[in-house]
Structure formats: structure tokens, C-alpha cells
Amino acid sequence: MTNHTANFVPRLSERLKLVASFVPQDSRIADIGTDHGFVPICLAKEGRIKSALAMDVRTGPLERAEAHIKEAGISDIPISTRLSDGLKELKPQEADTVIIAGMGGELEIKILQEGRHLWSTIRRFILSPQSDLEKVRRFLSEEGFLIEKEAMLREEGKYYTVMSVVRGAMVYNRTIEYRYGKYLLEQKEPVLKEYLKKEEERVLAILASLSAKEKGELTKGQEKARQSLLEELSQIREAEYEVQ
């Protein structure tokens, strides 16, 4: 075990710092998929939360989280760990803010669906899906959630989005709003601009490799892929125009 003092404060990645920054003052949090328990510990050290539940589906991460909590020497703010598959072991009124970060979008949707019975008791979800963001935003819209705030960052060459989600009406009118985030487009998010440029370059490179073939040589699958890429390119450029 790492030899930490009672003053141990974990170093958060930039992504986790952004996630933590979305937590309102004096929240009672549940951190789903807590891993090392770093986010609850940091929030407690900063006096930002009233209590925390560090939850994970695996015993190994929970044991690490328990060790880190002990090493951090936090006594005034209760932080406990709990074995749980998503939200299944969270009881109503135990938390008003739930963090679900660092998982694929479909898994985050599944966790939300299976925790449907808690929706009325949780004030805010902080989500950071690592894939399928369009699908996540469509799910939230269909299920009566509102993305009140979003932010985006790049860390070690990867792009991450963090969302603060509450109950409310959210109607997006265009595909690009679901795909890239209406809030991010309206805020002309600089990291989104960078991401869109990278995506445009990626799509153009694939199209160039396809157009290097004679059109007659393209298989049906390749032609279908080409049409799909052209549509994606159109959406990227529409979004780029929005964030200029």
C-alpha cells in the first residue's frame, strides 16, 4: 500500500477536476463507479459536500477507495463506500447529486434507466459519457431531463464532455445539437471548435481514400459508407459555422 500521511490529498486528472467543479456547494453526493474514491475525497477536503457515498460494482476499487479515505484523515464529513451495480443499492434521499462519469454512453443510459425509481429524489446528475454522446442527449430529452450546463476539455489527446443534468424540458431541433451539444454550440466552446476541426480532418481523410478508387470499384458497403461520411461532414461544417 502507498504510504500516505493523514494529509493525503489525491491528484485529480483534469477530467475529474472538471467533473468535481460541477458539484454544487453542500451537496450530498453519490459517486457511481468511484474507482479510487478520489472525487469524493477532494470534495470533502475542500469542504464542498455534506456527505458522500463512493459506490462501485467491484470490491477491488472499493477497497482502494476505503484505504484512500482513511489515509486522507477526513473526520468531519462522512464518506462511506458501498458495493452497488449502478444505482441499485442507493436509497431514496441518500444523495441529492449523483456523479456517473468515465463510462461509455450506453452504460450510463443503462444505469439511469435502472435507477428510474430515484429520479424524483435526485436533484442533479453529473454525467461524463466517453462515447455515444448523441444517444445520451436524446435519451435525456426523451425522459424529461434538461442539460443545464456542459463543458468540454482535451486531456492526453482525448476529448471529454461533462454535463450537469436536472429534471426539465429539453427540445433540440437539429441533429448537430444532439451530436455536439446545444449548450456547447451556443457557448461557442473553444474545445468543441478544436474537436470539430479534428473530426473534419478525419472524415476528409477517409473520403480521400475512398475517392482514390474509381467509383465503379466501390462496393455497395463502401458507397454507403461514403454517403454516411458526406452527411457527417455536412453536420460538422454546420456545427463549425455555429461556433465561429
CATH class of the largest domain: Alpha Beta
Strand adjacency order, main sheet: 3-2-1-4-5-7-6
| Number of separate structural domains | 2
Number of DSSP E strands: 7
What do we call the CATH homologous superfamily of the largest domain?
Answer: Vaccinia Virus protein VP39
Task: Count the DSSP helices.
Answer: 8
Measured between the Cα atoms of the first and last residue, the distance is 50 Å
Radius of gyration of CA atoms, rounded to a whole number = 21 Å
CATH architecture of the largest domain: 3-Layer(aba) Sandwich
Q: What percentage of amino acids are in beta strands?
A: 15-25%
Structural class: alpha/beta
Round the mean pLDDT to the nearest integer and report it.
93
**Which stretches of 5+ consecutive residues score pLDDT under 50?**
1-5
CATH topology of the largest domain: Rossmann fold
The helix content, as a percent range, equals: 40-55%
Major beta sheet summary: 7 strands, mixed
In N-to-C order, the SSE pattern is HEHEHEEHEHEEHHH
Report the principal-axis shape. elongated
Question: What attributes does this structure have?
Answer:
Rossmann fold, 20% strand, 44% helix, 2 domains, alpha/beta, seven-stranded mixed sheet, 244 residues
How do you describe this structure in short?
With 244 residues, the chain is α/β, with parallel strands linked by helices. Helices cover 44% and strands 20% of the residues.
Characterize the structure shown.
This protein is of the alpha/beta class and 244 residues long. The protein has two domains: 14-171, Rossmann fold (3-Layer(aba) Sandwich); 193-242. Helices cover 44% and strands 20% of the residues. The protein has helices at residues 14-21, 38-45, 59-72, 105-114, 133-142, 175-186, 190-211, 220-242; strands spanning 27-32, 49-56, 79-83, 97-101, 124-128, 145-155, 158-167. A hairpin with a 2-residue loop joins strand 6 (145-155) and strand 7 (158-167). Helix 4 (105-114) packs parallel to helix 5, helix 5 (133-142) crosses helix 6 and helix 7 runs antiparallel to helix 8. The longest helix is centred in the C-terminal third of the chain and has 23 residues, at 220-242. The N and C termini lie far apart (50 Å). Mean pLDDT is 93; it is low at 1-5.
